[in-house]
Specification:
- By secondary structure, this protein is an all-alpha fold.
- It contains 20 helices and no strands.
- α3 runs parallel beside α5 and α5 runs antiparallel to α6.
- The chain is globular.
């Protein structure tokens, strides 16, 4: 493909567009599944590397921290330096970090390499969307965004299934080797298919990059450490304060800049504001669910890693149906209806799932599955309108920044969801399991208090009394997860109302055009 590195490339053929879609969605799936695939392997990692619960938490969160903190900076660099260049650099960093982490000698090495992989993921993620939007003609752009959205939502489940299958035969490092190897392998097709699309006249705005890193780094670090250290711990409070100061500094800098890298005034646009709400709250709920539900399936119901992954296949089925329904609703009514309805259905799914958890150690799998299915439909219905609203809210020459805003809302929402919902689960778990701890030594109390997984592990050495303790821990985990799901359902319902009020409806001209097209269809 012949391209001009300073201007837009010549249009791609249909075959080239299909190849581009496959390559960019493969890159997207790698970084989306970077944490979910690894989460299912944490018990194996703990056993092999001797990692404690805090270290296991940071193996997951180090990736999210660098990912979220550098997304805006990577989007700026892609617009200025070139999207193909930044995407290749990101894939190489991600791939090398994943391959190296498979041979980590201890948890600290693993955590450091996970943070490095997050840097690569931050460079990959925004370009996967902006390159698609630029390459696809306007009449097919909604289709491309819909496929991208489906991969971004279903990628986590697919990654979990792949990881579960690998763990049945090989060690946990095989997951990292596969992800790293695929990332390095697709560098060549990226070079051949992805246009550079750079604008050297744009400013990288290094001060904005610094402020954004301080803001997002402080916020994410504080939210991650909150459940571990306590929300009133000095380190947590200082991190959140630094994040808040960085956010204020970023906004003030953008308001004063002659050529702001991200004009914060644009967030007065109802579409951009509503799209940000949709994406943030969707990933608040979904990432929290994907971290907590596998633990429930394995600890409480006794599923294997592969069985857990297969049980979650109902999510992408629902997502696919939701995306299809969203396209039809958006064409008729605009983004407001499917966006708000998607959030409402996600909340309903959480409520049904929470009701199923009331069965304790003998829940109705049909009720649980039904809740997850409705949740998936809602996610699929809302994800494309949310992304489209964000993209339409920024100028064309800032599409990588629009993608970065979309990705930042995803990552920050996800980290908040994991922290908040996990904190609620832990609080209710400790309160519910407390009566079962009477008469036990303090050392055992501390282990059980740390989590249901540790409680079940230590209970095995207690004989008949241990079985009672294990059941109490499992029951308490279900109670805690139910409470977290109800809180998530309320947040989703509130966000649905806000979205319906704030998001713009379909323009009158578009409604007239759509109505005219329907009338022209022969009977």
């Amino acid at each position: 493909m012949m391209t001009n590195p300073r201007n837009h490339p010549s249009p791609l053929s249909p075959a080239q567009l299909r190849a581009l879609l496959i390559v960019l969605c493969a890159a997207l799936a790698l970084v989306v599944a970077g944490n979910s695939a690894l989460a299912i392997a944490l018990p194996n990692i703990a056993e092999d590397l001797g990692a404690d619960q805090s270290e296991l938490t940071w193996i997951i969160d180090a990736y999210a921290l660098t990912f979220a903190a550098l997304l805006l900076t990577a989007g700026l660099a892609a617009d200025r330096i070139g999207r193909r260049t930044i995407l290749v650099i990101g894939l190489v960093i991600f791939g090398v970090a994943c391959v190296a982490s498979a041979f980590s000698p201890d948890p600290n090495w693993f955590i450091g390499l996970r943070a490095m992989a997050g840097i690569g993921a931050a460079a990959v993620f925004p370009v996967t969307l902006s390159a698609l939007v630029d390459a696809y003609p306007e009449e097919r752009r909604t289709f491309a965004i819909g496929v991208w959205s489906g991969v971004s939502s279903a990628g986590a489940v697919v990654g979990t299934i792949i990881a579960g299958a690998l763990l049945e035969a090989w060690w946990w490092g095989s997951v990292q080797l596969l992800f790293g190897g695929v990332a390095l392998a697709i560098v060549i097709p990226v070079v051949l298919l992805v246009a550079q699309n750079r604008n050297p006249s744009l400013s990288l705005d290094p001060l904005a990059a610094i402020w954004s890193i301080v803001a997002l780094g402080g916020l994410v670090f504080g939210v991650v450490e909150g459940p571990q250290r306590g929300w009133l711990d000095p380190v947590t409070l200082l991190s959140l304060a630094i994040g808040a100061a960085g956010f204020v500094g970023f906004v003030v800098h953008q308001l004063r800049a002659k050529a702001p890298s991200l004009d914060v005034r644009l967030f007065a646009n109802p579409g951009l504001a509503a799209g940000s709400v949709i994406v943030t709250v969707q990933f608040f709920a979904s990432l929290g669910f994907f971290v907590l539900s596998p633990q429930y399936l394995q600890i409480v119901l006794g599923y294997t890693p592969l069985g857990t992954a297969l049980a979650l296949l109902v999510v992408p089925v629902g997502v696919g149906l939701g995306i299809g329904a969203s396209a039809a609703l958006s064409a008729r009514l605009g983004a407001r209806v499917p966006g708000s309805l998607g959030l409402l259905l996600m909340g309903a799914g959480f409520g049904v799932f929470a009701a199923g958890l009331s069965g304790g150690l003998d829940p109705s799998l049909w009720v649980l599955g039904g809740g997850v299915f409705v949740f998936g439909i809602g996610f699929g219905m809302g994800i494309t309108p949310g992304t489209q609203l964000i993209i339409d809210g920024l100028p064309v020459e800032r599409r990588s920044i629009a993608s970065a805003v979309n990705d930042i809302t995803r990552e920050v929402g996800g980290v908040l969801g994991i922290a908040v919902l996990s904190s609620i689960l832990v609080s209710f778990y400790r309160a519910d399991v407390k009566p079962a701890l009477e008469g036990l030594p303090d050392q055992v109390r501390e282990v059980v208090d740390a989590g249901a997984g540790a409680a079940v592990g230590i209970a095995e050495s207690f004989g008949p009394q241990g079985a009672t303790l294990a059941d109490a821990a499992r029951e308490a985990f279900a109670v805690g997860l139910g409470a977290a799901m109800w809180v998530g359902a309320v947040i989703l319902a509130v966000a649905a109302v806000i979205t319906f009020i704030v998001a713009p409806g379909k323009p009158a001209a578009a409604r007239t055009e759509s109505s005219t097209e329907e009338q022209e269809i022969p009977a």
